[in-house]
């Protein structure tokens, strides 16, 4: 890619090196400043340290994973009961509900 700036009335962009000499037909020309911001933002986020062990985000994730696992266990029990042809009335009681 080549940097292209045609002066104060144009928008700087990148273009294919082959497009400049006529060997590439791609007309895509990403704007330079937008692309630079996106790449730098990604680089900053990629370089960020991992969250601490007791951080609220980690606790919320742990709670969500525990709720997901409990719901999956309930679904598995219901599927097993359906396959066995058991009546599901007692299986749907509140005792099997997901707890926080």
Describe this structure in words.
- This protein is mainly alpha-helical and 100 residues long.
- It contains three helices and two strands, in the order ββααα.
- The mean pLDDT is 79.
- It folds into two domains: 45 residues, no CATH class; 41 residues.
- 49% of the residues lie in helices and 6% in strands.
Strand content: 5-15%
What overall form do the CA principal axes indicate?
elongated
Distance between the termini: 53 Å
Output the radius of gyration.
28 Å
Outline the secondary-structure elements.
Layout: E1 2-4, E2 13-15, H1 17-21, H2 32-46, H3 56-84
Antiparallel strand pairs: 1-2
Q: Which properties best describe this structure?
A:
2 domains; 2 strands; single chain
Task: Offer a quick outline of the entry.
It is built from three helices and two strands; from the N terminus they run ββααα. It is mainly alpha-helical and 100 residues long. The protein is elongated, with a radius of gyration of 28 Å.
């Amino acid at each position: 890619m080549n940097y292209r700036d045609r002066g104060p009335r144009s928008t700087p962009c990148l273009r294919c090196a082959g497009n400049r000499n006529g060997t590439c037909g791609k007309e895509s020309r990403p704007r330079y400043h937008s692309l630079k911001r996106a790449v730098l933002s990604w680089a900053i986020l990629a370089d960020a340290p991992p969250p601490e062990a007791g951080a609220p985000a980690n606790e919320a994730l742990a709670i969500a994973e525990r709720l997901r696992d409990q719901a999956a266990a309930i679904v598995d029990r219901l599927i097993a009961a359906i396959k066995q042809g058991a009546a599901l009335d007692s299986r749907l009681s509140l005792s099997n509900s997901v707890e926080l």
